[in-house]
Amino acid sequence: MSLKKEERIEIRVSVEDKEVFKKAQELSGDRTFSGFIIRILRMQAERIISERDKIIASDRDRKIFFDTVFGDQEPNEKLVAAAKRYKSRFTAK
Predict the structure, then answer these.
(1) What is the DSSP code (8-state) at residue 35?
(2) Total domain count for the chain?
(3) According to the lineage, what is the superkingdom (predicted)?
(4) Is the pTM of the predicted complex or chain greater than 0.70?
(5) Does residue 56 form part of some domain?
């Protein structure tokens, strides 16, 4: 599937940055400089998005998390019992 390229991005870089980018492109085996830049930028963008999504996968998960941590719910019997066991084992006697 070939996507038609309709958008254009223009950036200005220092001479030093461009030299580094060109050297990396040559070493990478990418045939074109534009192709190299697009590939690297896409990889980094996907990595950033993936890392963010790992932290909180969705708005629903975020709501569940914050409601659980900061909500007004009372602890259930199992949690109360676990806390008592912990206190009895680890408090100074």
Answers:
(1) H
(2) 1
(3) Bacteria
(4) no
(5) yes
